[in-house]
Amino acid sequence: MSKSRPHFSPERFNRELLRWFEGNARALPWRATNHWYPVFLSEILLQQTQVEQALPYYRKLIDRYPTVYDLAQADEQELLTLWAGLGYYARARHLLKAAGEIVARFHGQFPSDLKEALSLPGIGPYTAAAILSIAFGQPLPVVDGNVLRVVTRLFALRDDIRQTVTKNKVRGLLHEIIDDKAPGAFNEALMELGALVCTPQNPDCQSCPVAGFCLAKERGLTGEIPFKSPPRERRRAAHFVLVVRFRAKFLLVRRDRPGLLSGMWEFPVLETRRLIHSNQKIKQHVQALTGAAVSKLTFGPELQHIYSHIHLRYQPVLAELEQAPRTTLTDRKAVWCRAEEFERYAIHRAHHKVLEHEETAAWFSS
DNA sequence: ATCCCGTACG
DNA sequence: CGTACGGGAT
């Protein structure tokens, strides 16, 4: 390291970085202890999720499941309900499975061996390194989006941070630099620096504790580094979202797994090529679904929801039944419930917007 | 409209 | 190694 980069001294770098972290670390609830369980829970939540967004969910979850034993015994539907709105719902199911395995295979202790940690569902290279370094003091570098940004700028690397090889390269570099005495603090400090100072746009180099080491700053390249290849175009989709009502009760259905939003509850959906009102088709669909005729259709405003890989446009439609539905109540994938009961179901964000939108919210108030 | 953020699976 | 998988901030 120091031979090929004479300007760079890991010792001095770590000293500046860790001193900055001591004075600037945010007081996050999972930092109040060294126990692995809060670290584990928070790191799963922080996958693809920023701290501010994860915080309220962390509080709900740690409160409901204070130990790994509580989590291992959790009801999956209840966990998904607490998770609803956060996205990447596979995380919640993996979290539950992992807790079960930690109890069953590892006597309630998080495995301190990297291979064993990686064998747990939902634990990949980032999360394993985070937990093992922070809670067990192991010198394993974490490579998340923040770290990629900080390190590529530090060494002026123009590699595409979307690619796996780049992540491995950065991990290799950090392996030479990581502070063996305080690997957890080193990792957290690097991520905190990326989140608070070395930000994607307009990094605050003036207050950066390691600006003196930064080649991107020296060469005026913080605008071009990190380089990230353009994302693939989103597939476009269009749905009618069918709010089926009979006597103040609404039909909810649970999505099959695996697949998008699997295990989550939603209003029945009619996929369509274009959002053209075809009343006949919609009525037929609802009748096939419920075995009851539709007395009235009301069209709500067009809404949209952007996923990483899908651009969804959808239109809520209130379908009122003129006779009692035949849908069986014992079907575990369909339920008729009152609006006040929606909060008991894990309803994903796109359909939750229908409950919130001012034009459609009235459909649910009796 | 464009950016941010890790893991599973084939 | 490429693709599927959500939601929020700016």
From TrEMBL:
What cofactor requirement does the entry state?
[4Fe-4S] cluster
Q: Which SMART domains match?
A: ENDO3c (SM00478), FES (SM00525)
Record bears the keyword Chaperone = no
Instruction: Please list the GO terms describing molecular function.
Output: 4 iron, 4 sulfur cluster binding; 8-oxo-7,8-dihydroguanine DNA N-glycosylase activity; adenine/guanine mispair binding; metal ion binding; oxidized purine DNA binding; purine-specific mismatch base pair DNA N-glycosylase activity
Similarity remark: Belongs to the Nth/MutY family.
According to its UniProt entry, what is the function of this protein? Adenine glycosylase active on G-A mispairs. MutY also corrects error-prone DNA synthesis past GO lesions which are due to the oxidatively damaged form of guanine: 7,8-dihydro-8-oxoguanine (8-oxo-dGTP).
Q: Would you tell me the protein name for this molecule?
A: Adenine DNA glycosylase
The record's gene field reads mutY
